[in-house]
Amino acid sequence: MFSFELLLDAVVIGVLLGCFYAAVSLGLSVSFGLLDVPHVAHPAFLVLASYAVFFLNEHYGVDPLLAGLLITPIFFLFGLAAYRLYYETFEKRGSDAGVRGIAFFFGIAFIIEVLIILQFGVDQRSVTATYVGKAWRIGDMRIPFRLVVAFGVAAALTILLTLYLSRTYMGRAIRAVAQDQEALRLMGANPIRIKQWAFGIATAVLGIAGALLIIVAPVEPTLDRTYIGRTFCVVVMAGLGSMSGTLVAAIILGVAETIVLTLFGASWAPAISFAMLLGVLAVRPQGLFGRLS
């Protein structure tokens, strides 16, 4: 029987889970929300980061969060290269870049998935750390440490990205390139280099997000297919490019999923993201907070 205590548990866990969803969606909020890059390979990059964290943890005993920090510069460079290839191959050629770009990033996602399988196999992988597998108990409520870690990291990433986009020269340039590239050119800036830098940041964030992914639950090579709906749902529901909106929208999704899970079982929970995405597109296509301006 569904009770107030179960509802409270679902809401608390949903808020923590939602913060985790925010952490894995922030990079997409930049690449898709601000740059209009159809980055459907975002979840594949995320899973790749998780396996990199697993490798450092398994072979060198590096803490997962520290491993996420260590791979962040590598993923930044990976993002710079990926955007440059996308730009030279598709975006530079004109208006059909969006459709062809989707195929391009789907191809990258497939290649990443195959490479992970070849290197690590198809079995699930997990990490070890002092905060993995433990939980706080508040009365009858059990709160996993791993979700508390995700909550803290997601809040920190949201604050840092918001400050970066609003307080730094490059951050303001990224916001400007999302609004008017021609005006930015007249000011002497190179929109392509700014977009490349922004895509590098969006990919670098996945180093930390990938660490959180494997901390929260074991990963396997095809996990990106599960998160593609969730991440795009969060970004579209938030309003393209809104960092704080991404956090709020992710919490809404997390709470909705846990309530549905509690009421109807696990089989219904994955469908929530697609249902909410379709609902937002039908009722408020600009998102809950509108596009970043």
TrEMBL record:
One of its GO terms (molecular function) is transmembrane transporter activity. InterPro entries: ABC_transp_permease (IPR001851), BCAA_transport_permease (IPR052157). It holds the Pfam family BPD_transp_2. Its main location: membrane. It is found in: Cell membrane. The keyword Chloroplast does not apply. It is a multi-pass membrane protein. GO terms for biological process: amino acid transport. The chain crosses the membrane at residues 7-28, 40-57, 64-86, 98-122, 143-165, 197-219, 231-253, 259-283. It comes from the Bacteria. GO terms for cellular component: plasma membrane. The keyword Disulfide bond does not apply. Keywords: Amino-acid transport, Cell membrane, Membrane, Transmembrane, Transmembrane helix, Transport. Belongs to the binding-protein-dependent transport system permease family. LivHM subfamily. This is Branched-chain amino acid ABC transporter permease.
